[in-house]
Amino acid sequence: MDPRYDWQLQPEPDQQQVQKLAAALQVTPLVAKLAAERGITSAADWAHFTQPHLEDLHDPFALHDMDKAVQRIMTAVEEGQHITIYGDYDVDGLTSTTIMKEALESIGAEPDVYIPNRFTDGYGPNRDVYERLQQGGTELLITVDNGVSGHDEIAWAMANGMDVVVTDHHELPEQLPDAVAVVHPRYPGSNYPFGDLSGAGVALKVASALLDEVPVESIDLAALGAIADVVSLTDENRIFVQIGLQMLRESPRTGIAALLAAAHVDPKTVDEQTVGFVIAPRLNAIGAWVTRRRA
Predict the structure, then answer these.
(1) What is the DSSP secondary structure assignment for residue 89, as one 8-state letter?
(2) pTM
(3) Tens of pLDDT along 196-233?
(4) CA separation for the pair 51, 142 (Å, rounded)
(5) If we measure between CA atoms, which residue out of 138, 60, 136, 126 comes closest to residue 87?
């Protein structure tokens, strides 16, 4: 059998357990069975699954190097240093960049933003771009949704007077960057309770640490990043998505409202499918536009 189709099925939950759970939750046996298969065995578990609460989010300072990241960013803000946010061109990268930019502006910074060109810069750290940013006066570079794979580029930046704070969620390479801070939910040896954050989720955790509270106004962006990047919609991601979708339905940002209007979608009907098949492709469309222009 092709290993791609060798499905690993969840063990069947005990039928008596399912019946008790159905009665406790006042749901059908089928829903109770699905809940049990997902590890939901009590009314408290069910409440966490269906009713998002910001209080259930984990301490942002539990993330690796978060204290170092916050200290360096705050120093840059206090001293009026030139900060550049280095993002990515997909939805998760764009939302990560916006979350970080809004957070820095709210504490008095005026950061620049650099979104790499898909074709000339490629994904992630780029030595030529780093050199241009350093020559342009950048003293602190903050990567969002990228950076963990840029050991050599970041080593050059650090050796040439441009400090780097990495915030990322991608696969960890064997050789990690020697940056001022590397904020990553799965950093080796760290014990963050949830490793499946999107880049936007990591950016929101950094913003929460900087502001000493969750920037609720940015949760819609974390929801977009999580859905578009197809991360696990559990734990913190589930909280972001449930709250963020409600925000998109009730008061979408001006740009998102314009995209929905262009697609003839009533904001009140927005759900995860709307994000995945209506909003996200349009936010990603700049890459396709460049492709057509260069064809």
Answers:
(1) S
(2) 0.91
(3) 999 999 999 999 999 999 999 999 999 999 999 999 99
(4) 33
(5) 126
How many residues comprise the chain? 295
Cβ partners under 8 Å of residue 162, min gap 6: 130, 133, 134, 138, 139, 140, 141
274: left (phi over 0), alpha (psi -120 to 50) or beta: alpha
Eight-class DSSP state of 173: P
CB 206 within 8 A of CB 213: no
- Note the pLDDT tens digit of each residue in 168-192: 999 999 999 999 999 999 999 999 9
CA distance 112 to 105: 11
Q: What CA dihedral angle connects 170, 144, 289 and 241, to 10 degrees?
A: 80
**Nearest Cα residue to 197 out of 173, 233, 250:** 233
Spatial CB neighbours of 294, under 8 Å, sequence gap ≥ 6: 119
Q: Which two tokens stand for residue 158?
A: 């650090």
Q: Which token pair is 80?
A: 């009026």
Nearest to 240 by CA among 216, 259, 256, 260: 216
Count how many Cα atoms sit within 13 Å of the Cα of residue 183 in the half-sphere of its side chain: 32
Q: What share of the chain is helix, strand, coil (3-state, %, to 5)?
A: 55, 5, 40
CA distance 265 to 293: 28
Residue in 99, 130, 127 with CA at minimum distance from that of residue 114: 130
Judged by phi (left if over 0) then psi (alpha if -120 to 50, else beta), residue 80 lies in left
